[in-house]
Design brief:
By secondary structure, this protein is of the alpha/beta class. It has a domain of 149 residues: P-loop containing nucleotide triphosphate hydrolases (Rossmann fold, 3-Layer(aba) Sandwich), CATH 3.40.50.300. It is 35% helix and 24% strand. The protein has 8 helices and 9 strands. A 6-stranded mixed sheet has the order 5-6-7-3-8-9, with helices on both faces. The protein is globular and about 50 Å long.
């Protein structure tokens, strides 16, 4: 298990939840998000769903401190006190790189940890950190593989391992399973569930895969520039707001195809 300064156990003074209250984002006079209020709890997977252009990526950027916003985003510990500077691990949809580049998984991860070019070499401590992170994501056997030879599922497990260096309080997954085969998908999500249960971390996942959300999410937020509905997967997917949102989205797509 990777060492972490904050206790992720429920009884400790670890990050307990992230409270978003009346969060809004505007850009160039356009309102991208309005009056967003919900909690992200540690030990749970929260799924963010909505049509393209709904503001999901904008909300992630606000959470990651990459977009200015109004309202408040508060990090709270188990005793209701402010939690300073939580660690946030981010897993993107994909990593852009030259597939011909002779770079191994260990090279990539070591460079991320040591913040120095791989050709300068890296020490035993860095190798150990990389090895432990890969072990957490069932990817130990990938350390010496070249990046260009990895399958989609293998690459996402490597990106997940990178997000665990150091172990985060909140893990953000941005459409992390696009293009994966069924085996890769199952292994990835089993790994994420294991991380949630073992380390009691909060997980926020953006996804268009309803079946996946139904199976793994504890709480779902339906977003379309504002929150249309929030609750259990069953509550949200059976809601009129969900039916109306995606029926309207489907009709717009059909109009474009005519």
């Amino acid at each position: 298990m990777m060492k972490h300064e904050h206790d992720h156990g429920q009884g400790g003074c670890s990050l307990c939840r992230i409270e978003l209250k009346n969060v809004g984002v505007t850009a160039g006079g356009d309102t991208l998000l309005s009056d967003i209020s919900f909690h992200i709890h540690c030990g749970q997977m929260t799924a963010l769903v909505g049509p393209n252009g709904a503001g999901k990526t904008t909300l992630l950027r606000a959470l990651l401190g990459q977009a200015p916003y109004t309202g408040s985003i508060r990090h709270v510990d188990a005793h209701g006190h402010d939690f300073p500077a939580p660690r946030i691990g981010y897993v993107p949809q994909q990593l852009s790189f030259d597939r011909e580049m002779p770079l191994t998984v260990e090279d990539l991860m070591a460079a991320a940890v040591s913040k120095r070019p791989v050709w300068l070499g890296y020490g035993k401590k860095t190798r150990e950190t990389v090895k432990n992170a890969l072990k957490e994501t069932n990817a130990e056997g990938l350390a010496d593989k070249r990046l260009g030879t990895l399958s989609g599922g293998e690459m996402q497990r490597v990106l997940l391992a990178m997000a665990l260096m150091p172990l985060p309080d909140l893990l953000v997954l941005d459409e992390p399973v696009s293009g994966m085969d069924q085996n890769g998908l199952s292994l990835f999500l089993q790994t994420v569930s294991h991380l949630r249960n073992t380390h009691h971390m909060g997980i926020l996942m953006v996804s268009h895969d309803w079946q996946l959300v139904q199976q793994y999410a504890d709480y779902v937020v339906l977003l379309n520039r504002e929150i249309l509905c929030a609750g259990t997967p069953e509550d949200v997917f059976s809601s009129q707001a969900f039916q109306d949102t995606f029926q309207m989205f489907s009709m717009k797509k059909e109009d474009k195809n005519e």
